[in-house]
């Protein structure tokens, strides 16, 4: 029986090409992001993370439908078979970056120190662009295929976060508080908290102070 590579992590580059090596590493960004989703789900139990991950998976399913519909070939010389329009890597990163940037703009007034929100938003957009560009450099997609992927992913993210703001955000807090399942699994919704990092830090410091041993009076 013939063997085939696992397409999610399969990537090749010219031997000795340092830029190609960087591009090959960038191609693994979606894998690392999925691992980050899983880590957040286990460690934070944030309901909003479940929602984002569901959108990410739905975006991937949409990419499969679009590829089957357009059935456009990859560039000549690509060492991977199958349709190439739109780029699945680019659409994945387009959704992830657009949702993150829109969430920062719409729902996060500040992140940590001044300008962190702007820097974080610029960083996710730059990473998405770098991953998309790496697919062109490695020859797996043409420029129009990655641009289409970024576009489809971004538009889908805009619709997904619009549904979150209009339909889910007003109801999630009450549902989490009243759901026995959420209470049992310690699922929470902190999307309304402006600076979760600061709130968690302050709570940990208060707990540390209250648990420190008190000096005995002489």
TrEMBL record:
Annotated pathway: Protein modification; protein glycosylation
Classification via InterPro entries: Dolichyldiphosphatase_PAP2, PAP2/HPO, PAP2/HPO_sf
Annotated transmembrane regions: 19-42, 49-70, 90-107, 119-137, 143-161
Phosphatidic acid phosphatase type 2/haloperoxidase domain mapped to chain residues: 49-161
Pfam families per record: PAP2 (PF01569)
GO cellular component annotations of the record: endoplasmic reticulum membrane
Lineage top rank: taxon: Eukaryota
Alphabetized SUPFAM superfamilies for the sequence: Acid phosphatase/Vanadium-dependent haloperoxidase (SSF48317)
Keywords, sorted A to Z: Endoplasmic reticulum, Hydrolase, Membrane, Transmembrane, Transmembrane helix
Reaction catalysed by this enzyme: a di-trans,poly-cis-dolichyl diphosphate + H2O = a di-trans,poly-cis-dolichyl phosphate + phosphate + H(+)
GO molecular function: dolichyldiphosphatase activity
UniProt GO BP: lipid biosynthetic process; protein N-linked glycosylation
Cited function: Required for efficient N-glycosylation. Necessary for maintaining optimal levels of dolichol-linked oligosaccharides. Hydrolyzes dolichyl pyrophosphate at a very high rate and dolichyl monophosphate at a much lower rate. Does not act on phosphatidate.
Name recorded for this polypeptide: Dolichyldiphosphatase
């Amino acid at each position: 029986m013939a063997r085939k590579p696992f397409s999610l992590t399969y990537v090749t580059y010219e031997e000795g090409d340092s830029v190609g090596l960087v591009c090959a590493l960038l191609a693994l960004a979606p894998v690392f992001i999925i691992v980050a989703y899983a880590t957040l789900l286990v460690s934070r139990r944030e309901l909003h993370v479940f929602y984002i991950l569901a959108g990410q998976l739905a975006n991937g399913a949409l990419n499969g439908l679009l590829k089957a519909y357009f059935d456009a070939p990859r560039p000549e010389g690509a060492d991977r078979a199958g349709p190439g329009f739109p780029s699945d890597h680019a659409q994945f990163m387009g959704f992830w970056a657009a949702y993150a940037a829109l969430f920062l703009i719409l729902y996060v007034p500040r992140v940590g120190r001044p300008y962190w929100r702007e820097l974080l938003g610029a960083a996710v957009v730059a990473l998405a662009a770098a991953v998309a560009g790496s697919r062109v450099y490695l020859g797996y997609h043409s420029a129009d295929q990655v641009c289409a992927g970024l576009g489809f992913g971004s538009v889908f993210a805009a619709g997904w976060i619009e549904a979150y703001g209009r339909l889910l955000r007003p109801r999630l807090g009450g549902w989490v508080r009243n759901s026995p399942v959420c209470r049992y699994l310690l699922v929470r919704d902190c999307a309304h908290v402006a600076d979760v990092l600061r709130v968690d830090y302050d709570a940990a410091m208060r707990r540390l102070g209250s648990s420190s041993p008190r000096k005995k009076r002489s």
